[in-house]
Amino acid sequence: MKKRIFAVVLSFVLLLGALCVPAFAEEQLRYVVLGDSIAHGSGLSNPTDAVYGRIVADTNGYAYENYAVPGHTTQAMLRRMENEKVAGAIADADIISISIGGNNFLLDNLGAMLFNGIVKKDFSRMDTIAEKYDADLRQIVEKILNANPDVTIVLQTIYNPQTAYVGMVYQQGADRLNAVIETVAADNADSVLVADVAGALNTRPDDFAKDGIHPSAQGNEKIAVVVLKTLADAGLGTATEPVINTPGKDMPGVRGNMFFINFFGFVLNMLGNLYAVVRIR
């Protein structure tokens, strides 16, 4: 008799467990990261385990996939989205974080833009880049929502890691692209959120890797906090204090890039002063 009661109780426990497992699986949100080297974690020597996307996923218990590629522009990302595995991840995702746009600016004849911006105070080329970025970003959002109408997209604003004269030109580019991000998000308000990464990172060297461009371990943690707060405000998570299962390791190197970049900006500014005098005469 006791054995029969025990068997019934055991069967009930096993049945309850079987019912609970799929319920838990259904509650785990799928979090997909797309974009460029920032989303990839290029400032870290252990990006797979310590990039901000991993921190966000570990903190909120998301199922996590990262398909970001260093060097990608919006056009490259659109092509990447045609990949069968990436397209499948997009279709199944609950949340998609996107960091894209910096390379649209950096890879489009940056030297000429720095010269025109610092020497001539001419930023017209950036307007052209922003117009193309607007068209591409709208296409990215449209393709994602066509494949997955219920997904939440998190667009990250573009930060400025530079200072002095070069920083001034960078800011002109970042401001234009961030204005596009805000507009695209507003036009798709039911599905698109904005994580203000630009507002979280500043010009402190500790926020950036030795290359002076990508976020350091500290910078990735700051980005994670911004994304976590954005998702919490949207009801897609409750934690805003990041869980760091694997501490990030900054990419080794020497902080020499910033000096040379700023020196280059100084030289261009001197040329700009000379150019202004020549024009007046």
Structure description:
This protein has 281 residues and is an alpha/beta fold. It is built from 13 helices and five strands. It has helices at residues 2-27, 37-40, 47-50, 52-60, 74-80, 84-92, 102-106, 110-120, 124-147, 164-187, 197-200, 217-233, 257-280; strands spanning 30-35, 63-66, 95-99, 152-156, 192-195. Helix 10 (164-187) links the parallel strand 4 (152-156) and strand 5 (192-195). Helix 8 (110-120) packs across helix 10 (164-187), helix 8 (110-120) packs across helix 13 (257-280) and helix 9 (124-147) runs parallel beside helix 10. The N and C termini lie far apart (109 Å).
Oligomer: single chain
**How many β-strand runs?**
5
Q: What shape does the CA trace take?
A: globular
Q: Report the span from N to C terminus.
A: 109 Å
Task: Describe the structure in brief.
This protein has 281 residues and is of the alpha/beta class.
Question: What's the topology here?
Answer:
Layout: H1 2-27, E1 30-35, H2 37-40, H3 47-50, H4 52-60, E2 63-66, H5 74-80, H6 84-92, E3 95-99, H7 102-106, H8 110-120, H9 124-147, E4 152-156, H10 164-187, E5 192-195, H11 197-200, H12 217-233, H13 257-280
Parallel strand pairs: 1-2, 1-3, 3-4, 4-5
Helix pairs in contact: 4-12, 5-9, 8-10, 8-13, 9-10
